[in-house]
Structures are given as C-alpha cells and as structure tokens.
Design goal:
By secondary structure, the chain is an alpha/beta fold. The chain has 2 domains: about 270 residues, Queuine tRNA-ribosyltransferase-like (TIM Barrel, Alpha-Beta Barrel); about 100 residues, no CATH class. The strands form 4 sheets. Strands 4-5-6-10-11-12-13-14 form an 8-stranded parallel barrel, surrounded by 4 helices. Strands 1-2-3 form a 3-stranded antiparallel β-sheet. It has a 3-stranded antiparallel β-sheet with strand order 7-8-9. Strand 7 and strand 8 form a beta hairpin. The radius of gyration is 20 Å and the shape is globular. Keywords: Glycosyltransferase, Metal-binding, Queuosine biosynthesis, Transferase, tRNA processing, Zinc. Homodimer. Within each dimer, one monomer is responsible for RNA recognition and catalysis, while the other monomer binds to the replacement base PreQ1.
Length: about 375
C-alpha cells in the first residue's frame, strides 16, 4: 500500500508499505545486478549507508546461478542476507541492450546468453516465474524498451505489445502468488510506461496502465540516448496521467541533477549504476561537484573525500590514501569510493524527503544544484 504524505507542486513525499518493510519515498535504489553491489560492497555495508531498497537483475540471475538455485536457497533475501525490500527488473532492458543477439516475437523474446551463447526464451510468464522464484518484494512487468531513435510506427506497435504482455504478467503473477510453493505470496507488480520520445503515445499508454490497478507504475525507455531536455519533457507530459496515489518509478536514472528534476516532476523511485560505476573509476560525488581522485593534485591531500560526510570512507581515510589504493589497483580503493557515492545518493534522498516534509523542496533543489555546479 502506498501512502501519499505530502505534495509540493507535483513532487511527492510518500511511503510504500511492503512485506519486507516500509520504503520512504522519494528513494534511490542501490543497484546490485547479480545480487551484489559491484565493488565488494556487502549487505551489512548497505545497512550502514542508509540503503532502503536493493535492485537485482532478473536476466543475470536467471543465467547465473539460476533462479531455481536461488529458490532452493530460500529466495533472494535469504540468499544475499538482506531483509529489506528488493526490486527485480524484468529482463526487458537486457533484451534491449542485447539487440544483436535477440529476436522479438508476440510470445516473447528469443536471445543468446551473453555468458555462454546458449539460447534463452523469455516472455511475460517466464519473467514472472523467474521473479517469483527470486521472491523479490517488487517485480517488474516484462516489456520491450524501444530505442529513443525508433520510428513512430515501430514504437506504437511495440507499446501495444508491451500492454498485451502486461496483461499476461498480471495473470501469471496472480496465479503464482496463490501457488503453494511460492516464497513471497505478497509480491508486488509494477507496470512500465513506454513510447520512446512520442509524448502522445506515452500519454495514451499511461492512461491504459492507470486503469489496470497495479501496485506501482514505471516510466521506462528514458536515459537511453535522448537528451536530458527530452527526458524532462516526457516526464512532464506523462507522469500526470499516472495515478498520484501509487508510486512512480523512473527507470535507470540517473545523475543527482536528473533525480532532483525527476522528483520535481512527480517521481518516487530511482535507480542507476552511476554511483557505483563512477566510484569504481575514482569519480566521486560531493556537494561541490564531482572530483576525480586520479588527478595528481590529490596525491598529498589529507582531507576526506568530503568534509562533514559520514560515510565509512570519509570518517577514516584521506583522499591521498584512497588515490594510492586506486592507482595500486587495490580493491579497497574501489570499495571505499563506491560506499561514498552510494552514501551521497542515499543521503541526498533523505534530504529531499526532509525538504518535501518541510515544504521547501524548491529552495533545497536550487541550493543543491548551485552547490554541485561549483
């Protein structure tokens, strides 16, 4: 159940009650593709850096170790020793990214494993069964993510197929949630709005999705090649047609600035690999903008990554030391940088929630963006 606590313009402060606890929104989900955050970050680390939701990937876990293996191990929560909410994405985006290896048909998608080349078929029912085996808190409907450069005719047909697939996802999830051997019988289902950068297709699709009484609604197929301005425009046009009394999830987005703009346009949930990926390469987020620890000027820098930051890296280590670890290719360097970046994102979300609670999000957003621009 989603509870809308406060609104400032279109920005929403809410909470989603799930079988694995309450999610305070807006929230950033920390991406652990294969049931782990890249950079040697453990589940107990996530607890220490304010993580509310961990996100894992259906396709990757289906390929390795296999969703049946995870089911036998008691589900994803038990498998990775994490008792808070987990969202699993449906595998649809991997189908998009594996374009050279796939064939899309009405029944689903035939494609090759990126690991061993074996043939895999995934359709709505298969995606739901895999996610049910994983026993995540929130499952995403199986969809096609058309390219932002795709022709209108293709996008229209693709969106219509995604709607038909969603109906099949919902029917299969209802069946699975009543099955005797299902681990999480209260698994939630989020549908995904598609339509590339055609606002009229997006709006029409949002209207159809809104009538389907889902647990939440995602906006997919953005941050895949279109400009930031196009993305913000699509959000402005589309989000008002999604139910305000349900969570809205902007998939795969993004930078701190993208998140602030998304919140302003009514988005509750975000996820992105940026903080962990950038961290592994020594690119760190601070309230004064991004820094690159590989720069020589940090060699003798005794300061933490950011003064006043409460993350495990900043509480103890200097920029100079972490730079040395990165240069020496010591795993600890990557780990500390990833922890800092995720802590920065999670703390920013906390600040956003506080600002919305106090009714001064607009002022907070302006100050945050000005600070990071320096």
């Amino acid at each position: 159940m989603y509870k809308l606590i406060k609104q400032e313009g279109r920005a929403k402060r809410g909470e989603l009650h799930t079988v694995h606890g309450v999610i305070q929104t807006p929230v950033f989900m920390n991406v652990g593709t294969a049931a782990a955050i890249k950079g040697a970050v453990a589940s107990e680390d996530l607890e220490g850096i304010k993580t509310q939701v961990e996100l894992s990937n259906t396709y990757h876990l289906h390929v390795r170790p296999g969703d049946e293996v995870i089911k036998k191990m008691g589900g994803l929560h038990k498998f990775m020793a994490w008792d808070k909410p987990i969202l699993t994405d449906s595998g649809g985006f991997q189908v998009f990214s594996l374009a050279s290896l796939r064939k899309i048909k009405e029944e689903g998608v035939y494609f090759q494993s990126h690991i061993d080349g074996r043939k895999i078929f995934m359709g709505p029912e298969e995606s739901m069964r895999i996610q049910s085996n994983l026993a995540s808190t929130i499952a995403m409907a199986f969809d096609e993510c058309p390219s932002s450069k795709a022709e209108r005719e293709y996008v229209q047909a693709s969106v219509e197929r995604t709607t038909r697939w969603l109906e099949r996802c919902r029917a299969e999830m209802n069946r699975l949630n009543e099955a005797e051997d299902t681990i999480n019988k209260k698994q939630m289902l989020f549908g995904i709005n598609q339509g590339a950068i055609f606002s009229d297709i997006r709006i029409e699709h949002a209207k159809i999705l809104s009538q389907m009484e889902l647990d939440g609604y995602a906006v997919g197929g953005l941050a895949v090649g279109e400009s930031h301005e196009e993305m913000y425009y699509i959000l402005e046009e589309t989000v008002p047609y999604l139910p305000a009394d349900k969570p809205t999830y902007l998939m795969g987005v993004g930078t701190p600035a993208n998140i602030l703009e998304g919140v302003e346009r009514g988005v509750d949930f975000f996820d992105c690999v940026y903080p962990s990926r950038n961290g592994r390469h020594g690119h760190l987020y601070t309230n004064q903008g991004k820094i690159n620890l590989f720069n020589a000027k940090y060699e003798l820098d005794e300061r933490p990554i950011e003064e006043g930051c409460g993350c495990p890296a900043c509480r103890r280590y200097s920029r100079g030391y972490i730079r040395h670890l990165l240069k020496a290719k010591e795993m600890l360097g990557m780990r500390l940088c990833v922890l800092h970046n995720l802590y920065f994102y999670n703390t920013m979300m906390e600040e956003i929630r506080d600002a919305l609670g106090e009714g001064n999000f607009a002022a907070y957003k302006k100050k945050k963006l000005e600070g990071m621009a320096t």
